[in-house]
Fold these 2 entries.
Entry 1:
Amino acid sequence: MTLSFYVHIPYCVKRCGYCDFNTYTPNELRAGGDIASVSEGYVDLLIEEVNLIPESGPIPTIFFGGGTPTLMEPMDLGRVLSQLENKFGFADGCEITIEANPDSVTLEKLEALHSIGINRISFGMQSANSHVLKVLDRTHNPENVAKAIDWAKSAGFAEISVDLIYGTPGESVEDWSSTVDTALSLPITHISAYALIVEEGTKLGSQVKRGEVVMPDDDLTADKYLIADEKFHSAGFDWYEVSNWAKPGSECRHNIGYWKGVNWWGLGPGAHSHMDGRRWWNVKHPNSYRDRLQEGESPMLGEEFLTDTEKESERILLEIRIRDGIGISSLDSEQRSRLLPFLAAGHLSNEWWQEGRVILTQSGRLLADQIVREILL
Amino acid sequence: MPAIELSKAPQPSATNPEQIRNFCIIAHIDHGKSTLADRMLGITEVVDPRNMRAQYLDRMDIERERGITIKSQAVRLPWRSGLDGQEYILNMIDTPGHVDFTYEVSRSLAACEGAVLLVDCAQGIEAQTLANLYLAMENNLTIIPVLNKIDLPAAQPEKFAEELAKLIGCQPEDCLRVSGKTGAGVEVLLDQIVKQIPPPIGDANAPARALIFDSVYDTYRGVVTYVRVIDGHLSTRDQIQMFSTGVRHEMLEVGVISPEPVVSKGLGVGEVGYVITGVKDVRQSRVGDTITTYNNPATKALAGYKDPKPMVFSGLYPLDGADYPLLREALDKLQLNDAALVYEPETSAALGFGFRCGFLGLLHMEIVRERLERESNLSLISTAPNVVYRVVHDDTKEMIVTNPSEYPDGKISAVFEPIVRATILAPSEFIGAIMELCQQRRGTLKGMDYLSEDRVEIRYTLPLAEIVFDFFDQLKSKTRGYASLDYEPIGEEEGDLVKVDILLQGENVDAFSAIVHRDKAYAYGVMMTSKLRELIPRQQFEVPIQAAIGSRIIARESIRAIRKDVLAKCYGGDISRKRKLLEKQKEGKKRMKMVGRVEVPQEAFIAALTTDADVDKAKAKK
């Protein structure tokens, strides 16, 4: 058995208005604190957690996510990697990704990150329009993205990705089109494009609730998905998951692992893990996480053991999202019949259906959740 | 002390009619009837102060919460008059306080010789009270006008004394002033009841005749029937007979309420009490019927017996189709205690299996629904209420329509709808607003009188259907809550009525069909189609929503096909969250009702069938 690893870095200089991830600003953790002081010793805790993990085979993929992983000293992240490599070993071509904020990198830092073994980097670009970034409450200057990506390139990163967000209030179709064009003009191999989800409890969530900000029409957001997909495709980026496109061979293997239901271990506060139908998650707050590990206890907060039905639900809802889709043979005849209207409406690929696979077409990808509900009824 | 110890008071079955006074209290909701009754129970010492609780006589939670009486009761109160020092038995007969129960009120009044007209002297008389007052005057009852709540800072006893004097033809100073809250004036009131109200008159030697003025189902005892003996005597060992059905019953128990049941040997002329026969269904012991003895039957029934006639119909459906048997059971159970409730199974293409239920009026409908939901823990959808139509079609055939979906399709030569005479009391500043509302609702002005300088009584005839559709809420909102309304059916009239159907993707949604006046059909169609467009989620295909009279489309809207239904990402491997969201969505899908291929959430049905006023009410409850 092998394990992939997700490493959570729960710090941000500032919380973006739409974000409900498990991340904290220095000031939230300690009044007047800075990143260096509040994150001091954090890597030691991650290493403590690694020590709690049972033996398993060489690691295929590792992903540093956050928060803002690039706020950490590359050397510290390198200690985590060494610990993982010492304990489990790295599989051939082990994919090691880091999420990066274009504002918190320098050429030197990127070189350092590359030198510790990180071979894939994903920049939070979100949009090329400053007025859209303002609604998202992002701090970076859109021009920094090109600069950061050039640096990454010269630092030796071969796999570079950008994250984009569409459907932000105030974003026009033209705005989005120019964002896509800008992204495609960069020397990148991978793109993630996510429709904005307004979460309760975020700043943007309350602005929408109060009516200060109006969410764009869903049809407009659907149009933007189609525009992006067409442009990405023409530029040689093919979809391999509903929200992810890559040049051939540059797909994010860590990401695919989630959709295929592999085993992974999430390190850090609030991180989720999965092993053979058991899912668990850690305590959310960095302080509770520290307390647990300093006591020599597991930081696990809760867990669930999936029933066969739940495993099947997850398989369907995850697999339908990827390019390989679902094998028709894994569905019973009633489930197949319920899919026929989607096939007839062109939401499922006819060609692939003949080949025995349920694979979403472009319009079908936008209705993935509905199709999942229809299968699982 | 004017109170008399129960054991020393005149005993049931052996009380001289000369010592009896039977009275009721006519009052509007909130005018303090229950509090005054509580005070009478205390002053006459029939309830030990330790056992006293507020609204002692109201039995159901709903009665206490809403401050209304649904069922009447009769309490025997011994009292030594402060005026002549003699012992008396006062029977206080509680009357239901709402327009829907006018018939029950009239039977309670028929059991009395006098009535206390109780009016909140901060608010003045209300339409319902006025209607009941007229009913009492028609029954030749002695009226004692009483102003309540004189302790309130906003009390205007002089103003309302004048109003009452004018209405019943007495002097303003004849109006008694009491405070149910403090007890002020209540002893004087009891003495005046003795003095002013005549004792009952009846023939003790004639065959027994007793009037049923209420009938209540009790889980342990079966039906408890409240009666007033007019002639003769009812004894425990008698076999009794109901006049309307001729059915014979054993009399298992006779007694009086004081205010807990006290078993007695019998009931004599003028006395008020209860009988238990072991009957399990109030329809076998109906309000208004006459009880006589089997061995020595009376030849003539007491006047005024009527079968309750449902005026308003609505479909009741369980939210969860699996609860249908439970709903049937609950209705069966409720009917044991509610002879006016009628129902029969009906099937709606949109709502599944349910019952078409007939009610005396809107409040009756609300109460039934609330009791079903509360006592049997059911969640219900009710269709918009409608009245009964008589439809003549194909020139000769005639049918009674209680459900718009049964409205005949063919050529209709005439439709008749029930008409009511409505009385509205309100401050005169609202005359314009009230007339405008009644005019909009196809009303005909019948007359208007000033009750006092600034209060008017306005009389209209209106189609009942117009009242059934949120009239009362509109009236209240246009008069800042000051107007009160009473109405009584006076027959039927031909109307220019049409049935408006609502179609979803060409499929008729029976639950939304309505019979409306031709001039209002368009407005109804536009209202329903635009409401549904908001309420029904987008589907995989475009869904046209149309309103139609027959095959003619009068309004249309359309729901665009859905294009996007996908979550962009899973957060940091939090697959559990996504799975739980899916499970929630699946639950939602299960609660969808299918109309053809269109999935309609139940919330959409509820919201579409609810008027805005209902929504506000529901909010106010929370």
Note: The mean pLDDT of chain A is 94.
Entry 2:
Amino acid sequence: MRVHSFSAILFAGVLSLFASVASAQAPVRGGTLTIALPTEPTQLNSAIDTTQQVKIVAGKIFSGLVKYDLNMKLQPDLATSWAVSKDGLKITFNLRKGVKWHDGKPFTSADVAFSVMKAFGQYNGLVRAVFANVERVDTPDANTAVFIMKQPAAAIMNALPVATATILPAHIYDNTDVRQNPANQKPIGTGPFRFVEWQRGSSIVLERNPDYFEKGKPYLDRIVFRVIPDTQSRGAALEAGEVDMIYHSTAAASDARRLGALPNIELTTYGYIFDSTVCFVEVNNEHPILGKAEVRRALAYAIDRKFVLDNIWFGFGTPANTPIHNALKQAAAGAVPQYAYNLAQAEKLLDEAGYKRGADGVRFKLNIDFVPFGDQYSRMAQYVRQQLTQIGVQAEVRNTDFPGWIRRIWTTHDWDLNMSAITNASDPSIGVQRAYWSKNIVPGTPFTNGTHFKNAEVDKLFEQVAVEQNATKRKAQFASLQKILATELPVLPLVSIDQFTLVNKRVQNHSTLADGVYSGYSDVWIKAAK
Amino acid sequence: MRDVIYRLFRSPAALIGMALLLLVAIMAASASVFYPQGPFNLVGQPLAWPGKLPGLPFGTDSLGRDVVAGILHGSRVSLLIGLAATVAALALGIAIGAPSGYFGGWVDDVLMRITDAFQTIPPFLLAIVIIVIVRPSVATIIFAIAAISWPAVARLVRAEFLKLREAEFVASCRLIGMSDARIIFTQILPNAMAPIVVSASIMVASAILTESALSFLGLGDPNAISWGSMVGMGRSDFRTAWYLVAIPGTAIVLTVLGLNLLGDGLNDALNTRLHRRRAGA
């Protein structure tokens, strides 16, 4: 027995030695990486479109000014160095020399100025607000771009990677309608891969850019994106080796653990810091009953977040206490009110709020809506309805298509509870503020403040963190902000979701940057089959 | 009539079909007896395989709901939708087909062109369009299925009426001054019932399948469990918990099989020519 365990340890030691040798292997050139797309993009310009299937393709074709590694350290991309003035009102970028667009034209500071002022600064739904702080971009020479700010923007560096601040070629886009430019269908970038062809309904093919500015990279010959709309088929294609990668949790969560345990498949949750998503129950804060914070707190007690995490998200995440994702360390929550699962407490609070059970055991009735993406949100709706039944709140689940759901939440505002999630993006000033800032109640515009939550303190704090230059002070402001949000509960936070990638183990270096699958993949290489 | 029942009970296919349907009827009737709380209660650990937990012979679904409760309550929704949609489609089909066949002429032209218009749209797509426009609920699903099933009935009824309006007994009714409505409802319709009854049994089956397909696509009533919605919900867990698809799937198969067998049996029993030929042989 002892001998056995000793030899087992020895064997394990030898194995781990092999493993470390393997990971230190030098990258090999060549090979095709195949990535499964869950839906087909409508175009390929990520400066004007924040959907993930646009970002994952465009991220390989275009470049940003900077990148972030997994420790959130800035790394050069099109900018080789940068300096922020003390007052935060001037940011100078020194641009890489000798970079060429895929059509051979030189990349210059004019491209940066154009992209900030006329492309993503105008049309990118996530970072538009951040870049609205840029007064103008000065271009003293072809290799220098200077952002002149109206006021400091704390999140601006976080907004700069390619996925959101995609640098476009001014010579193609200037003086055209950026959103309708034919180049959106056949993009021309500076990134590691060039666009080859797009077969509608089937695939998008990219090839190595031989003139890429990082010498010797990229390693891959080609990247093929295959459109596979059916969840089960995507899993089967990965298992069969027909695709190498399923990203952004687009395999069934229940199936992901099984797939991840296969000998040739790796399951990772790295590379989604910039897409940190929190799922929650949104509450209509103008509802006559739900408008009262004590009622919202009662409902929070009735929902077991651990159950939601384990059985609806299959363990991919952590229970959330606030609407800010715990991966965003710059905004870590301090001590906030907790609502440990307790049905008796929920009933007590409802009684105290004056909503006693009627003769039929019912306190009041509600409707539950859910975002019609995947299974998770409809399952959350089913679960929440069942929990509410137990505390005497009768709820009906409504099934709506996506446009109808958007109309109901943001236009007609005819809803009570809504199962949903929003990405916090790379910073709460980019991804979170929009949902709670009372000045962002914009009827008709999706993913604005749809709960109609209004709190002067919260407004003030969001405005402060947006311009605060001192990280410690900013963190303290975020802590106060989250304390209020966790007390007032404009939404009931459920789970900080960990997005996952399933990838064939032959693919190396795929999650080395903060924007993970949305990055350029110049470092990715494929290990030859043994 | 007694002959028909006698022949029906001598047909093994019809007997098996009726036994299956009786079983489903018992399931539907007993749902509230065994599971008065309904099918949505979270009773135990989610995704527990059949037999793993005591008292849960068919296991639990992804939220920990009892699959047996879902099957029993789901049989109600599936049967209700199947029967109600068929009755509605029959009523509409007869209302259109009977005058069309009986009067002929411009009445026939107008009514049949309307029927044609409906028949040119792929039926399942039409059902999806209707459900997407109005909110999915049991009532709207019944309406959508009836809306796609009636044209076939109308065609069938019209053909029967075309044939029977020339029959001698109809001529004699006209001769004694019977009103058109009375002739249609008391004379021709009873004699045209045989093919209508046979097709009705198949229509119930196809209505159940249509409802299952709609629920499978997520267009079912989210506040009611049906077998189709159980299959749809279980689908994403198929590789790890295939019983969630297999159990309601089997229930659908057996019910549809029962209805088809009964339909075949009815066809044989009502088709007197076939019966005579058999007797003669």
Note: Confidence is low (pLDDT under 50) at residues 1-22 of chain A.
